[in-house]
Amino acid sequence: MISSRPFYGISPLFPVYPKPEDISPAQKYWILIQGTQVLFRNQLESKIIILQNSLPTDLVCNDPVYLGIKGNCMYHVCEVPVSARLPEGFESSSVRELYGKAQESDMAIASYAVRILEFHRLHAFCGRCGTKTLPLTTERAQTCPVCNTTVYPRISPAIIVIIKKGEEILLARSPRSPSGFYSVIAGFNEPGENLEQTVHREVKEEVGISVHNLRYFWSEPWPFPDSLMVGFVADYAGGEIQVDNQEIEDAGWFTRENLPPYPSKASISRELIEAWISREI
């Protein structure tokens, strides 16, 4: 199988605990988030990662959240209130829209920042007793000082599978698909299932066919908002395509010569399709 080349997990930060206190401001970097949008300096190459010493003087933001360490540098994410004006010289964008405009390693750190900030937003208060939670100093978690409930960042496993039949692959279009793109089959893992069972169930539910001979492709942390996409390759085993008209509105078999529009780069679905086009899988 081909080597892994995920877009959103290529430059991990290491959340060292306890948080180091001896790192100088010249080695501290911030990622600024407003809502779900990443703020960046609009230069020749979009600057997502901002050195603490060069933060704009007109910046309005909440308390920074510690992300982790990379090399000798420390990273924080800071939430800019939605009502606040953007600092001079800054624009905002989703992480995915920055593909091709910013360094991929910076995009990976920014996507991680979006996930961790959302975790802190969702668990600012205890879900059991309502008390304001506190960050643990030993690991990435929020804990309640009253009832001791501890919560960790949620990870939602999901499968994504390309199905082969001779010289064709199955592609499907969702009613929610931007610009009518076709893609491979994907879906979330259900309690009690292993990932292979999820593949079989999702394929059967969405397009009505059976598959066999599953092979692992690679995985991708998918920060929209908290998925872990696990890629598979499968062979067609039988059945006729019958779309469910809910998750899928159209599906069909396509050769390399008649492919419909398919997802943009920076996605595992695109990588699966292009690996098949190049006969790597």
From TrEMBL:
InterPro entries, alphabetized: NAD-cap_RNA_hydrolase_NudC, NudC-like_C, NUDIX_hydrolase-like_dom_sf, NUDIX_hydrolase_CS, NUDIX_hydrolase_dom, Znr_NADH_PPase
Ribosomal protein recorded as keyword: no
CDD domains linked to this entry: NUDIX_NADH_pyrophosphatase_Nudt13
Any one of the GO CC terms: cytosol
Domain Nudix hydrolase, first and last residues per copy: 153-278
Gene3D superfamilies: 3.90.79.20, Nucleoside Triphosphate Pyrophosphohydrolase
EC annotation from Swiss-Prot or TrEMBL: 3.6.1.22
Top-level EC class: hydrolase
Name under which the protein is recorded: NAD(+) diphosphatase
Organism: Methanospirillum purgamenti
The encoding gene: nudC
